[in-house]
Amino acid sequence: MAFISSGYDPKEPMKDRITDIGPRNYEEFYPPIIAKNKGKWAYHEILEPGVLVHVSETGDELYTVRVGGCRLMSVTHIREICEIADKYCDGYLRFTTRNNIEFMVDSKEKAEALKKDLESRKFPGGSFKFPIGGTGAGITNIIHTQGWIHCHTPATDASGPVKATLDVLFEHFQNMDLPAQVRVSLACCLNMCGAVHCSDIAILGYHRKPPMVEHEYIDKMCEIPLAIAACPTAAIKPKKVALEDGTEVKSVEVNHSRCMYCGNCYTMCPSMPLADKEGDGIVIMVGGKVSNRISAPKFSKVAVAYLPNNPPRWPEVTSTIKKIVDTYSKDARKYERLGEWAERIGWEKFFEKCGLEFTHHLIDDFRDPAYYTWRQTTQFKFTD
Amino acid sequence: MAKHQTPLLDQLESGPWPSFVSDLKQEAEARAKNERNIEYQIPQDVVEDLMGVLELSYKDGTTHWKHGGIVGVFGYGGGVIGRYCDQPEQFPGVAHFHTMRVNQPAGKFYTTKYLKELCDLWEFRGSGLTNMHGSTGDIIFLGTTTPQLEEIFYELTHKHNQDLGGSGSNLRTPSDCIGQARCEYACYDTQALCHYLTNEYQDELHRPAFPYKFKFKFDGCPNCCVASIARADLSFVGTWRDEIQIDQEAVKAYVAGEFPPNAGAHAGRDWGPFDIQKEVIDRCPTGCMRYEDGKLEINNRECTRCMHCINVMPRALKPGKDRGCSILAGAKAPILDGAQMGSLLVPFIKVEEPYDEIKEVIEAIWDWWMEEGKNRERLGELMKRQGFQKLLEVTNIKPVPQHVQEPRTNPYIFWKEEEVPGGFERDIKEFRKHHQR
């Protein structure tokens, strides 16, 4: 493994340095039919799950085949994507905002050949490399995060639970059989990188134990005031602590009864780790959306306060999600998003129909706005 | 023979959804074989060690990455996320495992030529693993060592005309929906605005000068396919202010069942024949539509442009012709004081090059937030702390009813001293002349 220079000279680091050139211009990458018809599209249709046609005012037709992607992908896999795009799409492709891959061709015949090829490709373990789907009123890809692959603050993994969940929901990826599209997302801690706070169903990594404080190192490793200011519930205060050898050091004290394990102090301070095998697990949230269609965008709400981390397949998580999707699918009206359905029938009915236990954890107790989430009316439904 | 046993991960190879484990294994194998005789610049078994450390995490239910990591390239304050394994002896291949954010092209359109070039670079100088893409939009190069960072950056900029994305307390990489490139709903060119502003604010993107992170996202219409309203401090959502364009003949074709409702999005279930009254007229949030004698009427003055009717009948209805965007401010995740969606700041603004009016809004907000924002305080939190009125004041925008969902219910109303005749300075002795103690 001999070091090979790129031409960069570490002795003169600023020499020949190019900066601030930004991304490549998108126009370089438009397929010709897109460049020609941009801004002129007349209408679209979903021909079948995963296949769209866009028709231009010029009469041009563009067929798009959407396939699932697992976001975390190797250069070998990207090269295979390129090979397919070279073979069928003149070397053009794109990725969606939910990390699916879209191959575009200009005729139905080409789309058919492309589809056939995509469907035939599998990994040695048996999973599809390029499952076609993700359109219309079904379940598309899961927006997710780093998990145990790369991050230091997670309370769960990302890639694993996502794979497990999409295996269970797979029929809905390849079918458009729900009242409306269901957006599922995952974040491995409550920093909520991504879309957990605004998704129909959300999987959220959560801790349940306060951080440990490494008194010996905290003043050396951390800006203590930042760790204190990081706490939403003011559970952290400065404290002088005597170490075993008698040295007095600056540290902090965590008031356990005020801590709700958000982990933000650890984000700011390496001497306050909190990850824990038995403590950590998953919160399920439901009912969020970002579109303005019919109703305004909504935050997702906590529906299940804790499910265990159970690698590698997280069965408690996937079966709970399946139960929610099945109930929504059976009960909701056409075009009704999960959150609109839950609000129409009332959350008491949501819990009853989905067979979910309602526990004290689900009642908001964070500052003034919590009051507005309680029920200031006699309007409620009796449940069994 | 794999370097580490991965019995737990192996169970994620079955099932229909593409298995990241299978993909990791194929990459590990490809590196082990090295058929292209590449002089790998980081350990050849990096992917095997990544699987090893992930398997260990699956066993003991916790992450094995050390806290933080501060690495980068000269000239920039961000773009690289440093990461070190907490078991470097056991997994030396991932002792360093830094992520590089590469600024994606707007709309995420690619040529295979470009992607293959990036793959060649990343296989040679990194792990060969990526995220396509990070939630904010970047191409993520997942895993390399510190000495390679400058080398990769040099090649990116010199050979591929390609810059890094953002990280840290700065403008993060902007991203957009597919827009006019392939959508008939797009009310402005999201790619053009995204690309222009990304270039305009390169300094703000590469060199952290803000109290905290700041994100732009660009949605072509209120369907919000890039979720700007939930995931960007400033959200640009396309809209129109004239009349929805109606093609009455096409409406009749929907009613007659010739065109599938919602472009066929519900074709997987029998929902009965299309019923325009039930599916469109009665679902309109403002009740501003009517269908009588085979004619669809919309009272556009009462329409809130939610997109439902257009979504259901894309061949009959189109956004109006007088187009622009709304700007919403302050979306963020829960930390620290609760999640926020964007709040409407500019109801309508034209989107026209050179985008001066839009830049004025952005820069006025930055001037205020950079001065007043506390350490690690998102714009949304500053808005809560200092008030929405303050945001209007600094952006020189007149308060209008559209700025609120509802007026305040509490009467704790602040007045500016100059609004009140006589001001606030008063003499108690004057008061006592008329009111005995």
pLDDT averaged over residues of chain B: 98
Structural class category of chain B: alpha+beta
- The SSE string of chain B, one letter per element, is HHHEEEHEEHEHHEHEEHHEEHEEEHHHH
Q: Count the helices of chain B. How many?
A: 15
Strand content of chain B: 5-15%
Largest sheet of chain B: 5 strands, mixed
What is the gyration radius of chain A calculated from CA atoms?
Answer: 25 Å
Number of strands of chain A: 12
Rg of chain B is: 27 Å
The side-by-side strand order for the widest beta sheet of chain A comes to 1-2-3-6-5
Describe this structure in words.
The complex is a heterodimer of chains A (384) and B (437). Chain A is of the alpha+beta class and 384 residues long. In chain A, 26% of the residues lie in helices and 18% in strands. Chain A has helices at 32-37, 75-88, 108-120, 159-168, 170-173, 215-221, 224-229, 264-268, 315-331, 338-345, 347-354, and strands spanning 41-48, 51-56, 61-67, 72-74, 92-95, 101-105, 184-187, 201-206, 236-242, 248-254, 281-286, 301-308. In chain A, the strands form three sheets. Chain A has a five-stranded antiparallel β-sheet with strand order 1-2-3-6-5. A four-stranded mixed β-sheet of chain A has the order 7-8-11-12, covered by helices on one side. In chain A, strand 2 (51-56) and strand 3 (61-67) form a beta hairpin. The radius of gyration of chain A is 25 Å and the shape is globular. The mean pLDDT of chain A is 98. In chain B, strand 4 (129-132) and strand 5 form a beta hairpin. Chain B has a five-stranded mixed β-sheet. In chain B, strands 1-2-5-4 form a four-stranded antiparallel β-sheet, with no helix packed on it. Chain B has a two-stranded antiparallel sheet with strand order 9-12. Chain B is an alpha+beta fold and 437 residues long. Chain B has three domains: 7-159, Alpha-Beta Plaits (2-Layer Sandwich), CATH 3.30.70; 175-239 and 324-418, Sulfite Reductase Hemoprotein, domain 1 (2-Layer Sandwich), CATH 3.30.413.10; 245-318, Alpha-Beta Plaits, CATH 3.30.70. Chain B has 15 helices and 14 strands. Chain B has helices at 7-10, 20-33, 46-60, 112-125, 146-160, 190-200, 202-206, 228-231, 248-255, 276-279, 308-312, 356-372, 379-386, 388-395, 428-434, and strands spanning 80-81, 99-102, 109-111, 129-132, 139-142, 175-176, 216-219, 234-240, 245-246, 289-292, 295-298, 317-318, 323-329, 343-349.
